[in-house]
Amino acid sequence: MDDRHESRVLLGELTSTDASRRIAAGAILLLPLGSQEDQGPHIPMGDHRCAERIAAMIAQAAIRAGIDCLVVPALPFGGRDFFGSRPGGIALTQETLRAVLRDMFGCLLPHGATRMIVINGHGGNAQAIHDVTQEILLRQGVLVPNLQIWRIAAGLLPAILGADMAFRAQGHGADPLASVAMHLFPDLIRPGTMPHGPAPARDVFGLRAGNFGTGHLETDLGAVEIALPLEIGDSAVSGDPTLSSAGTGAALTGQLVAIGVALIATLTARGWGASSPAAPARQGSSAP
Fold first, then answer.
1. Where are the alpha helices (DSSP H) in the chain?
2. Is 60 exposed, middle or buried (0-12, 13-18, 19+ CB in 10 A)?
3. pLDDT by residue (tens digit) across 122-176?
4. What digits encode the pLDDT tens for the residues 244-288?
5. Fewer beta carbons within 10 Å, N or C terminal of the chain?
6. Residue 202, class by beta-carbon neighbours within 10 Å (0-12 exposed, 13-18 middle, 19+ buried)?
7. DSSP assignment, residue 36?
């Protein structure tokens, strides 16, 4: 791929003619999703930027490996879970998110884009992604994997930091996202406002409530987790961001990119997109 246009990975930078030709030739499309939500006083709210940057890095690495890859513009608003009420936060209801995803895929699929991967950077998107991609698989036989970058990164942390430090560092407003943001967007981090440790638990009618819709009931059998329909309290931070670093973020980002390229290579080698996995057809179903 010597032409400079062929090395571009952002779909928004291509002409329709270039996009049509590369998709028709089998280019893989990466769909980065994230959110616009409170990450604490030290990290910018737009964590969708991390998902988009990682997707671009995966696409560039895939092209270097000989597999064409494009990045769809990031969907910046995530599914509402615990953060919709925070100042500056913008979240979509799960119903709206499913509708938006259906429309996005519905625009891409008719033009031969049968090789797509979601690069998801927000836990509140997971159920909607599952619902819509399962519909696509059942109705059209197209498999759309979902790379959950923060879930994967959390699993990588112990090997980088050690098990004890990784346990203390993990949480919202902390690792793994904090370290990755420090690496990718150092100019946007405000280290002087960084909280020292997670926010204290709240008391909700005798239950010790955390930030993510859970409370703990103390019993003779120990603490029992109870689901509660709560949004976050005064602080969005549930880990210790003082343990995060740009070095950890560089290691995580490099490993996430390697995993993304490995996924693309594995799927491509097995004829993904050219043939469909076995999926039961539904009577009277139609494309989303």
1. 16-24, 48-64, 94-108, 126-140, 149-161, 163-169, 177-184, 246-269
2. middle
3. 988 999 999 999 999 999 999 999 999 999 999 999 999 999 999 999 888 889 9
4. 999 999 999 999 999 999 999 999 999 998 755 554 444 444 444
5. N
6. middle
7. B
Does the CA dihedral 246-124-92-257 come out positive or negative?
A: positive
Q: Which residues pair with 203 in a beta bridge?
A: 208
68 within 8 A of 27, measured Cβ to Cβ: yes
Counted residue by residue, the chain has a size of: 288
Question: How many angstroms from the chain centroid is the CA of residue 132?
Answer: 16
255, two tokens: 């490993």
Query: Which residue type sits at 26?
Result: G
**Contact by Cβ (8 Å): 30, 68:** no
**Helix residue spans in 112-229 (DSSP H):** 126-140, 149-161, 163-169, 177-184
Tokens linked to 133: 């991609």
Per the DSSP assignment, residues forming a β-bridge with 148 are 120
User: What six digits make up the tokens of 73?
Assistant: 């513009």
Say if residues 75 and 57 touch (Cβ distance below 8 Å).
no
Residue 70's DSSP bridge partners are 29
How many Cβ atoms sit within 10 Å of the Cβ of residue 65? 13
Q: Are 108 and 24 in contact (CB under 8 A)?
A: no
pLDDT tens column, 22-78 = 999 999 999 999 998 877 778 887 889 999 999 999 999 999 999 999 999 999 998
Q: What is residue 91's three-state secondary structure?
A: strand
